[in-house]
User: Fold these one by one.
Assistant:
Number 1:
Amino acid sequence: MSCSNKRIIMSLLEKAHSLLRTYRIRPKKSLGQNFMIEPAFFSRMAESVSLCKDDTVLDAGAGLGFLTRFLASKCRAVVAVEADQAIEGLLCEQLADLSNVTIVSGNVLKRVFCFNKVVSVPPYSISSRLLLWLFSRRFDSAAFIFQREFADRLLAPVGNEEYGSLTVITSYCARVEILDVVPRSAFYPRPRVSSVIVSLKPFETKPFVLKDETSFISLVQSMFTQRNRKVRNAILPHLRSTCSISKEAAVKKAESLPFHDKRVRDLTPESFGVLANALVD
């Protein structure tokens, strides 16, 4: 790391201390408030989404606004969302000079925004829900800083302990790549977990055909609650709730389904697609 970058980091760290002191804010562990103070990663994330002057970017979990200000200098508009009301007030004052920044207070998962790219360091506690929320919308590309353990789940191989519903859903929706390791020293306060930059690019052509994406997601989420059971058993609660049939009818239907004798954890994403399509018929 160059001396100039070290000076910038120190200035952002000092700025973070100053802002928190001035606004009498103490970072909340419950909200995952670890603020990014390493500007080199701002550039890395922007480059990964090919950020340009025509883009409208979502910054989910804007924090102290350091990333937001950087993004505002690179694109047409930034929608900065912050759930903590005290920090939202800080953002409104600190970013008042930026006419292309819209600050939104509240839960990003319960709002509707117009954007085409996402560059964000979200609270790690909402990572799964944030991705599912994002996959239900159109976007060109996204770059996140996520907990390393979470990122590994997105890329876990079939049968692996980390392989789960989010792995399957993500593999259908987007190409995932881990771009860089982010050291704990890049945050204030320093988190206890390891972090990485993750790139997401939606598939132009999906890897397999689904008759109903909503039904697919519902099926996958339901079955992974019983990941070690065979399909014919794990699928019964889903069949009874979605088809409104008796237990006996559900058992009969389950026995007729593809892959009924395989364990849930051993099904590929494509196999889940075949199974979901069979239920739509």
Note: The chain is about 40% helix and 15% strand.
Number 2:
Amino acid sequence: MSEGKFFIATEKEIIDGKASDVYFSRTLNLVMPEKKIVVAEITSSVIEQWINFTGLEEVTNLLEGRNIDVWAIPEGTLMATRDSLGRSIPFIVMKGNYSEIMELETSILGFICQSSGISTEATKVYMACHPKPYVSFGIRRMHPGISPMIDRAAYIGGAAGVSGILGAEAIGIEPSGTMPHSVALLMGEERAWEYIANNFPAGTRTLLIDTFGDEKFKAIEAAEKFPQIDFIRIDTPSSRRGNFPQIIREIRWELDIRGFSKIKIMVSGGLKKEQIQELKDAGVDSFGVGTSIASARSIDFAMDIVEIDGRPITKRGKLSGMKNVYRCDKCGFTTIGLFNEKQVCKDHGEMTPLLKQIIHKGKRTSPKLNAGKIRERSIKMAMELMNQFKE
């Protein structure tokens, strides 16, 4: 490991296969002389009704330049980990000399396992919040070296904004933030409020009201002194909340009867998706969600050889052969099948193959998509899922 102040792999170390499990490097010399062309696929061993598949851009960057072909489910796709017949779906398929990818398996899986876990939870939070927006506040709960990845995955999954400076830069948006309690402690609450109310752009003027006093009375005070603000924010520790939805109802009532109906309410602080509906019903307009997204359970992907020199072969518990994923655009029936064989829905005819080639002989086959475009795909599919749930 290169010398540095922080325990984090460099880009070069990852590309060179140093961020790998040791058994790959120890057996590489045994494999290299074989020169066999393998097909390796990545599937999930966990049955999930749907996940939001992300991390593919980093995988593409890692594999670009290696003499292999790669196909994948597009990033930001919401999809089950099994087809309609209960068989594991390949999210990525790679073909080439095994020595080209052997030492990179650990990093490939790491890129998609964690990112997909975060984006999946972010989409679940999006569904819970809809139509209210939420901002991802979670990077302080994880290693700062991966903060851009966390924010990107959360944004693709449905966060309307992210708090991280580097994450927002990677996404191509402005970072979102209000004020920390420390500013109220250092400057005094009213002075901090005044600065934000008079200096922040319209739409972002948010006053944190729970540093010293009762939330209801502080909300009234903030609104009366600074009626131009856009939001009041409550970040009260759970130990002091009591009936949190009832506190929100009181604040909303007191603001409304005093003519401050345009001032919105934002809440944050250890929120989980299960709490959001009740808070929405109570009158919350916006949410800050952090730990539950940033520390989301990773998706358990695995990589396996399924073909060697054109011969289907794999370990027990897996399905051999180079495969694609096919979906009926009309009824949604999904099935795996051999890669170049057409699949037909018994009711609606030919099905659509879902794996798209992203690398051909080491070169990208399409330009990079920015996070906003990928997010659009996620949101569209999330809305379709929500409509299905309503039915």
Note: The two ends are 54 Å apart (CA to CA).
Number 3:
Amino acid sequence: MLNFVRRAWAPPVSQSDLERTLWKLGVTGERVAIVHSSLSSFGNVVGGASAVVKALEHASSTLVMPAFTYYTLVWPSEHRSEDWPQFVGDDGPPFRADSPVSRDIGRVPQTLLERAGTQRSSHPALSFVALGANANEILRTQTLEHPYAPVGALYALDADVILLGVDMRSNTAMHYGEYLAGRPMLERWANTPSGAVRTYYPNCSAAFNPIERHLETFRSVELGKGNVAVMRVRDVVDTTRRLLERDPYALLCSYQNCRCQSVREKIKRQGMKPRRDTLLETYLGSRVEAVLGGRQ
């Protein structure tokens, strides 16, 4: 879901404006980046979402974005859980490779999806899209049991997080930090052409903003009506994990009907059970060996 910040008035934003801003923040086209964006938060963007995607292509070696499809979630009565919404809608359509990105995620990921050469993972609710040299190795890590595994691949690649007009509540890297810290996972079901399948689902992100002050690599500048922020994936993940190790209830919102309340109860009953990401460990090991082998 997009959580944007914007000012009252600003001049139009061009592709070159965004490229210069990213360069000022140290994004020079040599690194992998995961981007979360709100096009409308900048006001008038000359060239629209296409201009933003082009600027991001120039600013990264591999470009990754969430392409979530919340409307593919289904709610089988026989699997109802205490953390489900009190009222659920009709079952959504099955996920397909060309399923539109949910409007909550924004127009920019949809534009990247439609770009020639873009790849998409096959998760029926929490897919990612990627374009560039590392696209396949990032996307292929994702499974129903580990939907945020691509963030683990980004961690291994020492990627950047770029927030365009949105705040930390849109930063999916934090969910991977929750996973490693052992926060209880939620169960959901999503529709596929073969029927409904079970997957794990992230916690609410409404209370994620306080983590910003703990990040060592966070940098932000104004652009148009919005802000552009850059930070390292490793900083976000490690800071989230450490914060939850100190306070298991940190980053949970206080909204009465939110799934955060179910997560609180799960923590009270079963505590936090830190997880090792063996896929990440293997991934890091193989990349280290490849680098060392290339130096011999």
Note: The longest strand covers residues 186-192.
Number 4:
Amino acid sequence: MRHSRFPLIVLAIAMLLAALVSFSAAAADFKIGFVDRERILRESGAAKRAQAKLKKEFAARESELEKMEKQGRELQSTLQKEAMTLPEAERSAKERQLAQLERDFKRMQRELREDQTLRSNEELVSLQERANKVISEIAEKEKFDLIVQEAVFASQRIDLTDRVIKALGDK
């Protein structure tokens, strides 16, 4: 009975070794890459162009808000200096004017921030789509099996971030 199991055990070990050898051969053909998405979104030429575009797009509204803020500070300063000498009706009118200016300023500031956030998100989505396209092109061209974007550790040898940044800058 003992002799009848021995060939089965040897056969099982042989099959296990064959499976391990074929697995290690398959793993040797497995090509993996890594990209740092945060760095791409921060350092690529496309990201910098998007930031400049947004800054230019909202510059006039930012300037208008700065003027309103300056006007409010001047009006408040005038009110504080002349509060005792101004007639009651004029002082009340200036206080209402200041309150209205503050409300308008806060409303415009809130609207500006909302619009900036919306446009920033639109540009971010567009940039992510372009980055994904570049990453896919690299993966197909160089026959990568897997490209990951988050890892605890990634060797420089498999880091494709610089190539993606360069490709985005060229487009």
Note: Strands lie at 32-34, 146-148.
